[in-house]
Protein: LutB/LldF family L-lactate oxidation iron-sulfur protein
Amino acid sequence: MGSATDKASDRADDSPLNLPHRAAYLGMPAFPEAAAVSTRDSRLRSNLRHATHTIRAKRAQAVAELADWDRLRGAGAAIKDRTLRHLDHYLVQLEESVTRAGGTVHWAADAAEANRIVTELVRATGETEVVKVKSMTTQEIGLNEALEQAGIHAYETDLAELIVQLGDDLPSHILVPAIHRNRGEIRDIFRDRMAGWGRPAPEGLSDRPADLAEAARVHLREKFLRAKVGVSGANFMVAETGTLVVVESEGNGRMCLTLPETLISVVGIEKIVPTWRDLEVFLQTLPRSSTAERMNPYTSMWTGTTDGDGPRSFHLVLLDNGRTDTLADQVGRQALRCIRCSACLNVCPVYERAGGHAYGSPYPGPIGAILTPQLRGLASPLEESLPYASSLCGACFEVCPVAIDIPEVLVHLRERVVEGGTVTLRGTRTVIKPARKHRAERAMMRAARWTFDHPGALRHGQRLLSRTRGLHPGRLPGPGRAWTDTRELPDVPAESFRDWWARTRGDTT
Structure:
């Protein structure tokens, strides 16, 4: 959704093209390691700064037009929470509605099952090519790679996703996957790579947004007209009618949803809204929060199949993949409210400097920092590091159109990382052992709790610190070294507050 050439940085340069090899997200380094590399990339930071500041300014203007924005925000959160509380009921209702309308519903417990279902459905058509609508869910499960292993080529048709695919790259933003690329880089990708995927880029292609968009349009047109199978996600699913909704800004989604003979939609189970009346709230908040538009240029809705109009066969794959585990967490479940607007990314100071690839997930930024560890579980150093990829400034919560308290969930997940323990993920019991630094942190917190519970010990400790302040190091040793690498220890005052109070007020309590 959205035009990459309009929203990516307008700064073009002649520096050499750096195209990272496309790799699976799983197994990527922890956030601090990846961010240490990306923050040193001045071109990346310039691209991100320009794009995010532009989008956030436009969003602020669009939101300010609505006097009842706070009420819409509260309504969206309430609808999502009510739906999640009764998710079992609405999922059954959705399946019945889709089936009654001529569609077929498939249930996928995890990514492997979803990929198997989609692969088998495509093979049953006898086709070896599919066209795709931009979909976070299919990125989450690695569908393109699974189809490729089965000899099926998946062609991305969103402009930004096309840039990422041609560049053998990874998406770095929810709304604008190629936000880390500027116009000059996009031009070079089209010139060098487009011919290998179909119609080549025109001779003498410039970096003007209109020329880049036209090159993509001509390249994709033959794929739209040839493809017999389309694959999509969905922004929303209406339980009462079985209607699926995709919102986008380019029209490629409309082509993928209407021209192929077979349509396969892979959608997370949390994307349900109970009624059309509920949908009305999100069709106001989503476009303003994402593209800063009053409404999306293309809002496509379909209900099952219709003779003589659109796909002859429709399949809906409902994906769990950790969502049920997330729903069981009373604090963390609010992450399932997310409508993928990306507003939190565009105001986050950490994302702006580190970029999306550092998060090691299709879901970057603040929402990725709370969603990825819950969907995957705290199963590796990457997931354990993501709850710490935040300054807890709260800007993400302020702009979220469904009022997800991301800082609250981040602190909650940090507690889970430090405490460790045994968790059940998709039916498998897993023991999460805190890292050495977290065990040390836990020991220090327990010592602090004991000290605060014993006023006498606290008083003597404060006096000792004040009298030895000249001996205090500028950096902490051992496990505390990482903390003081990026922070300065405060100076210890010559007199504690307790002693000052006793001296000036004569109160020794």
Q: What stands out?
A: The domain at 4-319 is CATH 3.40.50.10420 (Rossmann fold).
